[in-house]
Amino acid sequence: MVALAGGTAQLTSQIRVSAAGPHGLDLDPGTDRAFVACDAGSLVVLDLTRDREVASGSIGGEPDAIWFNAQREMLYIAIGKPGLVDVVDCRRNVVADRVTIEEGAHTTAFDAAPQRVYVFLPGSSRAAVYEESD
To answer: N or C: which end of the chain has fewer CB within 10 A?
Structure first.
C-alpha cells in the first residue's frame, strides 16, 4: 500500500500488506485506519498514522468491493465465489455475519443514510437490498 502526494504524485509512505492479492480498500477517516481485503481470503487493517499493519483476519474467499459503515463500525465485503457478503465487526476484527447470496454477486454499494447495502445479482438479473436495524 502506498501513499502519494496529491500535487506531485511523489511517494510519501509505504505500508507492507502481509496477505497476497490486496485490492479491496476502504478507509475509516475517524480512526485513520485502512481496511484491505485480499485474494488470500483475509482482511488486513492498517494504521495510517503509524504506517503499519495492526490486525488481520480470515474472510470467506477472494473479495471484490468492500464498504465501511462508520456509524456501526462494520465492513461489508462482497465475495463472488461462492457468493457471500461477509459483515466484519471492525471493533473486534471478526466476521460478525455471513450472508449467502448467489454466486457471481460481487458488486455492491452502501448508502449510509438509510443504512442499506445493495448487492447486484448478475445470474438472476436482480438486486438484493439489506438494511441494518437496531
So the answer is: C
Q: How far apart are CA 75 and CA 86, in angstroms?
A: 8
Q: Is residue 133 part of a domain?
A: no
Confidence of residue 23 (pLDDT cuts 50, 70, 90): confident
Which residue segment(s) compose the domain that 23 sits in? 2-107
- List, for residues 50-69, the tens digit of each pLDDT value: 999 999 999 999 999 999 99
CATH number of the structural domain spanning residue 8:
2.130.10.10
Is 74 within the bounds of a domain? yes
Long-range pairs for 109-118: beta carbons < 8 A, 24 or more residues apart: 109/65, 109/67, 110/67, 110/69, 110/76, 112/69, 112/70, 112/71, 115/69, 115/71, 115/72, 117/67, 117/76, 117/85
Give the global pTM: 0.92
| Cβ-contact 55, 16 below 8 angstroms | no
pLDDT surpasses 80 at 72: yes
Residue 132 lies in a domain: no
| Cell output for 126 | 436482480
